[in-house]
Amino acid sequence: MTPTVSASGLSLRFGGTVALDDVSVRLRDGVTGLLGPNGAGKTTLLRVLATALPADRGAFTVLGHDPSTTAGRLDVRRTLGYLPQTPGFHHDFSAFEFVDYVAILKEMTNRTARHQEVRRVLEAVDLSDVRSKRIKKLSGGMRQRVALAAALVGDPGFLVLDEPTVGLDPEQRMRFRELIAQAGEGRTVLLSTHQTEDVAMLCHRVIVMTGGRVRFDGTPAELTARAAGRVWSSTERDPGARAGWRTGTGSFRNVGDPPEGADLVEPTLEDGYLLTLDGEPAEVAA
Ligand SMILES: Nc1ncnc2c1ncn2[C@@H]1O[C@H](COP(=O)(O)OP(=O)(O)OP(=O)(O)O)[C@@H](O)[C@H]1O
């Protein structure tokens, strides 16, 4: 199957900071998680793929469209839904007015068809009941759903979500996960997040970045397997552990290189992620 997004050798610097360093990825249908510490280059990669920022080097296509030409860039934008890290709401707009405004920007000129589409996406994110409320009166979780509805306008084949669950309470996050999972059915979704749980529960694939580079690209099970035999329980904090903490039951959970005869426990995706980051710089100065 041809990938929806095919990127090779993407590199970008901001002055002395290397934000992307030779990034190559191929994305297919379903939800791919993008994990990495602050400053790893996640938002930069998303902005480049969303054609909001040109890369210094490298190339990519989205559904066969090449954004290096003006016409190709327009084609990519027509097939794209983008939920940025800080959505630029007009807070005095109602949810309906805001999503309608985004639909106008997406070139939907037929008013009847456009309003039908706006109602469809607001229904999809379960906001039909509050569509006439001003955005400033909505909760944080509802605002994120308005932003998701705006990204879903026009049924894009490629959906880019930049930390959409940040600041949400557990119930809202769960609700948002459901919506992202639905959005990933028959569509390619790239989800940047700091929540390893989001990745474990939602994603068929995970990419880990640090210092502008891809350090891991595989399934969540493969990332978890990186910590196999490297997580153990002990009564005291093990001085040889890379990370160790007392759990609610009073015993210590250690991650790293276990001593002989250690009481090994089942690793999580977060353990695999932490061990992948181990020793890697979060940001790289050129
Ligand atoms: N517009 C900019 N001007 C200068 N430097 C920038 C700019 N945008 C990003 N950077 C730098 O590029 C690097 C990558 O930043 P980026 O925002 O892509 O990381 P991130 O992984 O998304 O981090 P976070 O998880 O904090 O959002 C960082 O060192 C950041 O300071």
UniProtKB/TrEMBL annotation:
GO MF assignments: ATP binding
Stretches assigned to the ABC transporter domain: 5-236
Source organism superkingdom: Bacteria
Positions of the UniProt region annotated as Disordered: 235-260
InterPro entries, alphabetized: AAA+_ATPase, ABC_transporter-like_ATP-bd, ABC_transporter-like_CS, P-loop_NTPase
Pfam families: ABC_tran (PF00005)
Keywords: ATP-binding, Nucleotide-binding, Transport
Family: Belongs to the ABC transporter superfamily.
Protein known as: ABC transporter ATP-binding protein
